[in-house]
Amino acid sequence: MTHPIEIKALVFDVFGTVVDWRNGVASHTAAFLQRHAPNLDAFEFADAWRREYSPSMEEIRSARRPYVRLDVLHRENLLKVLERSGITGVADAEIDALNLAWHHLDPWPEVVEALGRLKRRFIIAPLSNGNIRLMVDMAKRAGLPWDAILGAEVVRAYKPSPQVYSETVDILALEPAELCLVAAHNSDLAAARRQGLSTAFVLRPTEHGAQQKTDLAAEQAWDFVVNDLNELANRLGC
Description:
alpha/beta
């Protein structure tokens, strides 16, 4: 287990760990669906959109495609979901506006308070697959008090590619164990651990809705296992 004094910075997975993407995307798509496909469920639409997330990034992780930012992938994925849903004839401007749903997600209830506590002692930053503008818009709207915006667009690679973690360590001028990844996803933490980072698992049992079947428990002996970010702040003496 990592002693808290060894940690100098905390970086956070964002979608699911810091913000509630599913309720947020469903909320932002509800009015759109009411206009164009009133029989479609907004949560099912959000889930379908999210299912395209990892496959689209795999094209870049595998080097079959050069890096493009997540906003581009989200829009391409949205077009796929619209086509499969039989929604046609939507103006480009309306598609662009809908794609911004990911910029306007709400944090989980304790997040802003907990980040404020952690910021007093540690460098805190997102380590997200979301691009810089997306992270900035989200932070300004939700009051997320980041010290920096780090992640995929900074290193031009998508998690869980090793360089996302190793290059972030270098950017912050730290030793790997001095940087702790905070995430609700065991796979993200496993990739970070392989690069020597410290790890903190935070439980988000409804990220995918009430019937969630993944990431309901820590799958390894992570350095910290907590129920929310305030508990992590307590464990770190903040």
